[in-house]
Specification:
Blueprint: H1 2-10, H2 14-43, H3 46-59, H4 66-69, H5 72-121, H6 129-132, H7 144-160, H8 170-177, H9 179-182, H10 190-193, E1 196-203, E2 211-218, E3 228-236, E4 251-256, E5 270-278, E6 285-293, H11 314-334, H12 338-343, H13 345-374
Antiparallel strand pairs: 1-2, 2-3, 3-4, 5-6
Length: 393
């Protein structure tokens, strides 16, 4: 009997086996479909979602369990390594303190060059022909015909316009060329920033707490009486005792602005609005005038105050985070390379960086497409509506 059964099994038609396999696949597909439907129903249940979220919240920051599984003697040695890491953090803090001292030293070497830049911009000094000679790159070289044409056009413009003094609107152009700063500018800020003559960075003196100050120097104008507006950033370069492993270099702890002595009716950080109010009982209408804050670059000099507790609401935290980014960018990029932001060359460099990232992303997509084509199970979907040129006549 057993032999008969075996014979019957060996005589099964291969086509029948294919049918069996197809049935099994269909059944598996039905099971997956049911599981998917059940999952969707569960995810639409607010009670289940709330319980799941509570469970996930409880897992945030929890250890993986690996450390707990280690023998006690190994845990003891890991603690020794962590103590070494804390000492490394303190050495790193000293390193950044010395970097700050180097910045102070080299700031003094840069300053005469920046002062001369300021003199040229505000027409206090006219550079010599030798100082104005600039060797262009090969890409910038022009043919003799184009040079002659450009020279004629420049001479024509010079005849039509008065001889400008210095480099007009130098810093305003820099600000408008940089997205981070341009987003802060309002139309009513531009006439004021035309009077900005220089921006300087001053570092704290040796032995003093780490900080730097941005000085905005203005020529006399009709908007305010200040000749210099300042913004000071206080920094810290030491590990937090409660979380020493989070140390990653100096961090800005707070900043203070300055009082702007606005001329009457010229304060662009405030605006006057009129509102109509209706009396509930009598029904009479009156017009009320109110002064409210106004968007302006000059709000930069009135940052939110950080309370002693260090706790801020979300809006203030966001404002300070953006403020710190802007202050750091002005110090690190704008002041040292102002002329390149004026000409747009520094902007082109930044754009090139983003292009490279885009190219890498494109390459990754290309690799994914190649993987799909090499996959023996990959079946590209046919276009249900092919373009006109693909349709058969």
């Amino acid at each position: 009997m057993a032999d008969l059964d075996n014979k019957e099994q060996t005589e099964i038609d291969p086509a029948d086996m294919e049918d069996v396999e197809e049935v099994e696949e269909e059944e598996t597909g039905e099971d997956n479909s049911k599981a998917h439907q059940l999952t969707m129903q569960m995810m639409q249940n607010p009670q289940i979602l709330a319980a799941l979220q509570e469970r996930l919240d409880g897992l945030v920051g929890s250890p993986s369990g690996y450390m707990e599984s280690l023998p006690k003697v190994v845990k003891r040695r890991v603690n020794a390594l962590k103590n070494l890491q804390v000492k490394c953090a303190h050495i790193e803090a000293k390193f950044y303190e010395e970097v700050h001292e180097l910045e102070r030293k080299y700031a003094a070497l840069y300053q005469p060059l920046f002062d001369k830049r300021s003199d040229i911009v505000r027409a206090a000094y006219e550079p010599t022909d030798e100082e104005c000679e600039w060797k262009k790159d090969e890409e910038e070289e022009l043919t003799e015909e184009m040079k002659e044409k450009a020279k004629v056009e420049e001479e024509k413009k010079d005849e039509e316009k008065e001889d400008p003094k210095g480099i007009p609107e130098f810093w305003l152009t820099v600000f408008k060329n940089v997205d981070l700063l341009g987003e802060m500018l309002q139309e009513h800020d531009e006439p004021i920033l035309k009077h900005l003559q220089d921006i300087k960075v001053k570092f704290s003196d040796a032995g003093q707490p780490m900080s730097f100050t941005l000085e905005f120097h203005f020529e006399p104008n009709d908007f305010f009486t200040n000749t210099v507006l300042t913004k000071t950033y206080k920094m810290r370069s030491e590990p937090d005792e409660s979380d020493p492993f989070s140390f990653d270099g100096p961090e800005i702890m707070g900043c203070t602005g300055c009082t702007i002595d606005w001329s009457k009716g010229k304060n662009v950080t405030l605006k006057t609005i009129k509102k109509k109010q209706k009396h509930k009982g009598r029904g009479t209408v009156r017009t009320v005038t109110k002064t409210v804050p106004n968007d302006s670059f000059f709000n930069f000099f009135s940052p939110p105050e950080v309370p002693e507790s260090g706790e801020l609401d979300e809006d203030s935290e966001a404002v300070l985070a953006a403020d710190f980014e802007i202050g750091h960018f002005i110090r690190e990029r704008i002041v040292p390379r102002a002329v390149l932001y004026f000409t747009g060359e520094a902007i082109e460099d930044d754009d090139d960086d983003y292009d490279e990232e885009g190219e890498e992303a494109d390459d990754e997509e290309g690799e994914e497409e190649a993987d799909e084509e090499n996959d023996p199970d990959y079946e590209p979907k046919k276009d249900a509506n092919p373009p006109e040129e693909c349709k058969q006549q």
